[in-house]
Specification:
Helix 4 (69-78) crosses helix 10 (202-216), helix 14 (310-324) runs antiparallel to helix 22 (513-528) and helix 15 runs parallel beside helix 22. The protein has 24 helices and 14 strands. The protein is α/β, with parallel strands linked by helices. Helix 16 links the parallel strand 10 (359-364) and strand 11 (382-388). The two termini are 47 Å apart. Residues 72, 76, 102, 202, 235, 237, 239, 283, 285-286, 364-368, 503 line the site of FE-MO-S cluster.
């Protein structure tokens, strides 16, 4: 079977040349900037990888994949929580486009933090529907009315208010309105200054959202849930039902999920998250700092997991068992893996001959471009190029580069919380000696090595990919499958290449865990082996393309 090395040995696919081709038509300044964000992967003997520039502003004029700060705050982090009424303070478009477009699912009857009230506000879209009048005379009055109206109709336990761009521009103070309404209604009302223009991407919004949840909700309920092995799952958002599959596996293993941030979640789950024994991080980008803050404030250690791909799921379950050092749990985890794997292997073996050697590229937010490579590996598919929309250097190169990351004005815009041990609730789950012993036994704490060390040499790692570069990559590499989001989908399909959305899963999923891996194998098999793509002729293939140059050139 061909390997990445064989493929890039083809002179036309020499990554150095491809890189030059990608930036050749850019103005000099843009090309210079993009050259720092388009990196040829080289893994050194000590596992070090080249530096990549990331988490910087997109060059105006380039059509990127990113979303805004508000999208990261309201859409990504708070959106999947069913029992908080999330009110968008802004024009109706912001609320409308962040409403149910991300395919988070929720189940009021399932754990964790099951609320008996059956509250589920996710099917609703709450917005103050700002008009010219509010833009000119201020919108605080309308916001107060909206909070009151939502309370009168739904009687929720909590209300979140999200500021959009115009709110920041006209200076409405969402926090003082929330404070006033909190006192008046006697429920938790909290605001987020997540104006779309803050930071350089939705990553800023994650941070603002998580700081808010950490400040206003985590630790407000000390009731301890029953269960021997209590965990929080951080950075799992229940896209396409992923969390349901992960919850099924935890339950089978006898692991108690106290809270998920924030797939299939409730405000109650967040409130007693500080009672768990360990934090598991799935999406490092969107939430790693919450794990750090919880460790400082409550003494809960964290470990990195990944439930995307069957092998990674088994590995992550073994990590949890190793952390708890309990023979009963270890046995149960092994039994569950042994029970689940045959069906996975059966599906994989049937499909593998049809998918092996196929070429794939993944350009997704901040962690899926890494995690999904494991699933493609199980199908024998080769990742030639990958990148994040808004990942930071640590998501690419690993957390060891954290001390070297320069803080710029855009990041300084986002509040860093100062956290101290909680006088009542700080309880180190493991003593320093225990931690040392566990480390010797191979348990890795507070670490994420990033995507690049996991990818073959000479693959192209591209941060904040543009539409133009997408077209170029497809022309040059002719991949069998491209993974990205809805904005890219149809442009890619016009090249005659199947495109899989890894944000919403295109109505498919779940893809996490064991059952999810089987779903994924089938969906990818159908896509890369469908002949329909070869019948497609893009408009420019049917009609000659007109080319011209300016007279002055
Ligand atoms: Fe984390 Fe996400 Fe992602 Fe993300 Fe997102 Fe998402 Fe994503 Mo879309 S939190 S970084 S901001 S795993 S919405 S569930 S799929 S870009 S790769």
């Amino acid at each position: 079977m061909e390997t990445t090395e064989d493929i890039v040995a083809d002179e036309c696919l020499d990554p150095e040349k491809v890189k030059l081709e990608l930036i050749a038509k850019y103005p000099t300044k843009v090309a210079r900037k993009r050259a720092k964000q388009i990196i040829i992967n080289k893994i050194g003997e000590t596992g070090d990888v080249p530096e990549i520039q990331s988490n910087v502003r997109t060059t105006p004029g380039l059509i990127g994949q990113r979303g805004c700060c508000y999208a990261g705050c309201k859409g990504v982090v708070l959106g999947p929580t069913r029992d908080i009424v999330n009110i968008t303070h802004g024009p109706i478009g912001c609320g409308y486009y962040s409403w149910l477009t991300r395919r988070n699912q929720t189940d009021p009857d399932s754990s964790p933090g099951t609320s008996s009230d059956g509250h589920n506000f996710m099917p609703y879209c709450f917005s103050t529907d700002m008009q010219e009048e509010q833009i000119i005379f201020g919108g605080e009055k309308k916001l107060k009315q909206a909070i009151q109206e939502a309370y009168d109709i739904f009687k929720p336990k909590a209300i979140g208010v999200f500021a959009t761009c115009p709110v920041g521009l006209i200076g409405d103070d969402v926090h003082s309105v929330c404070k006033e309404m909190k006192e008046k209604l006697n429920i938790n009302v909290f605001g987020f200054s997540c104006e779309g223009y803050k930071g350089v991407s939705q990553s800023a919004g994650h941070h603002i959202a998580n700081n808010g949840v950490f400040t206003h909700v985590v630790g407000t309920d000390d009731s301890v849930r029953e269960g021997e092995f209590k965990i929080n799952l951080l950075g799992e958002y229940n896209i396409g039902g992923d969390a349901f599959e992960i919850e099924r596996i935890f339950e089978k293993c006898g692991i108690t999920l106290v809270s998920t941030f924030s797939g299939n979640s409730t405000v109650e789950g967040f409130a007693n998250a500080h009672t768990a024994d360990v934090n598991l991080i799935m999406c490092h980008r969107s939430i790693n700092y919450v794990a750090e803050m919880m460790e400082k404030k409550y003494g809960i250690p964290w470990i990195k997991v990944n439930f995307i791909s069957a092998e990674s799921t088994a590995k992550s379950l073994r990590k949890i068992a190793a952390y708890f050092e309990n023979s009963k749990l270890t046995e149960r985890v092994e039994a569950v893996i042994a029970e689940e794997m045959p069906a996975v292997e059966k599906a994989r073996n049937a499909i593998y001959p049809r998918t092996k050697g196929k070429r794939v590229m993944l350009f997704v937010g901040g962690s899926r471009a890494h995690h999904y490579q494991d699933l493609f590996k199980e199908l024998g598919m080769i990742t030639l190029s990958a990148g994040y929309e808004f990942g930071h250097r640590d998501d690419y190169e690993g957390r060891k580069v954290l001390p070297d990351i320069k803080v710029d004005a855009d990041s300084r815009n986002i509040q860093e919380l100062e956290v101290h041990p909680d006088p009542e609730n700080f309880r180190p789950r493991k003593g320093p000696e225990e931690i040392e012993r566990l480390k010797k036994q191979g348990v890795v704490f507070s670490e994420y090595d990033g995507m690049m060390p996991d990818m073959p040499n000479n693959t192209l790692i591209i941060d904040d990919l543009s539409q133009y570069e997408t077209d170029q990559l497809i022309e040059i590499y002719k991949p069998d499958m491209f993974c990205a989001g809805i904005k890219e989908k149809y442009a890619i399909q016009k090249h005659g290449i199947p495109m899989k959305q890894l944000h919403s899963y295109d109505y498919g999923g779940p893809y996490a865990g064991f059952a999810g891996a089987i779903n994924f194998y089938h969906d990818i098999d159908r896509m890369v082996n469908s002949r329909i793509w070869s019948y497609m002729k893009a408009p420019w293939q049917k009609n000659p393309e007109l080319m011209a140059t300016y007279a002055w050139e």
